[in-house]
């Protein structure tokens, strides 16, 4: 006789009972009839398919549930399969792909057990759809069809869906079904599982399911979506979701918030752009002061235009930097939101995240060659740009303006110039040229005018013209900051 002690029959029975009780409790807690489960096929024996559903007790479904339309097995050992729980005991979990059979009794059984039934939409009727289920004609209200983005109800006719039976009355003459109830139930189950692990700050991956005017929806789990607001889809300035994503795209996003609305529905907010990182992190490597680059006009303000140089990186071209060719009173006179435009980078301030741009400098400064084109004593023809008490401003070339002083106009030789209006052509002679100050003084041909102080005239021209205070004024900076905060 060895030192081993043989267990008594009573102890063996106690252990068996404890194991059975534990299995039953685990089954009762985790699985209920009407619940959808996902498992792995263990083996197929005769007419039974044994499935591992993640607990101690195996699931069992009929072999016919895994046959396709041609009678061939659609899954085998090791494959994943989804099914509904139709019965729970301490020995097994009865599973089914859907409720089968026919007649009123089968429909009542499906209703009582909250099991889905296969159905086919046969027609559109008043208030909803006619659906064939288990050999009977049923009614599905339009509000219970639960198929998103259906513009034409008739497009669903002939489509097969699964439904929950919500009502069986008058011996089967009044049968009501709902696909939406099934979708909502699945969503609730998947959402509960998802929320057990999902937390704010997580990075998730999913498929874009649909687009909306305010953003895009991403699938986080079957029938569970998170919303990516338009402002969170991309660092680039976009006005519609389809500029950034397309339904079917696989994207990564960061969880911004998980909250319930007034109706108790869980709302999950996501961000694609925050997964990409800070767009300003590499600005110094990609943009250089003095470079001419292509940008996209994102929005116009009274003081200038915001132009996107990189996704999420904008610069400001002040109104005084928009054109050499004309005097700009409103940015929309020369630019349109969304258009592509060449700009010169005048300054990059990484600390304040501000980039100063110039549209006109990208075209080249017309005053660089002014001394060669408009030498003193040369006869030139231009167009009257404006009249003031200081004289006549004349456009000689795009971005180049000359001044016929009021003192000259008051002389006998210049008197007839006072009758000229804006847009009139006039021929004059260059009296003086200052390329640095961007000034040209003009006189009538054959007149030798005495030097005059035209400083007040040019200052007045600058105030109403393209100078407006060179560069970005303090007011422009304040407005830009206000827009940025908004």
Strand arrangement in the largest pleated sheet: 1-2-3-5-4
Q: Helix share of residues? A: 10-25%
What spatial form do the alpha-carbon principal axes imply? Answer: elongated
Number of helices: 11
Give the total of beta strands. 25
Structural category: alpha+beta
What does this structure look like?
With 486 residues, the protein is α+β, with helices and mostly antiparallel strands. Helix content is 20%, strand content 38%. It is built from 11 helices and 25 strands. The strands form 5 sheets. It has a 5-stranded mixed β-barrel with strand order 1-2-3-5-4. It has a 5-stranded antiparallel beta sheet with strand order 8-7-6-9-10. A hairpin with a 5-residue loop joins strand 14 and strand 15 (266-271). It is elongated. The termini are far apart. Mean pLDDT is 81; it is low at 24-29 and 465-476.
Summarize the structure.
This protein is of the alpha+beta class and 486 residues long. The chain is 20% helix and 38% strand.
Secondary structure: elements and pairs:
Layout: H1 9-30, E1 36-45, E2 48-52, E3 59-62, E4 80-88, E5 93-96, H2 103-113, E6 116-125, E7 128-133, E8 136-141, E9 160-169, E10 174-178, H3 179-195, E11 203-212, E12 215-221, E13 224-229, H4 230-233, E14 250-260, E15 266-271, H5 273-276, H6 283-286, E16 292-301, E17 304-310, E18 313-318, E19 340-349, E20 354-358, H7 359-363, H8 370-373, E21 379-388, E22 391-397, E23 400-405, H9 406-409, E24 425-434, E25 439-443, H10 455-464, H11 474-485
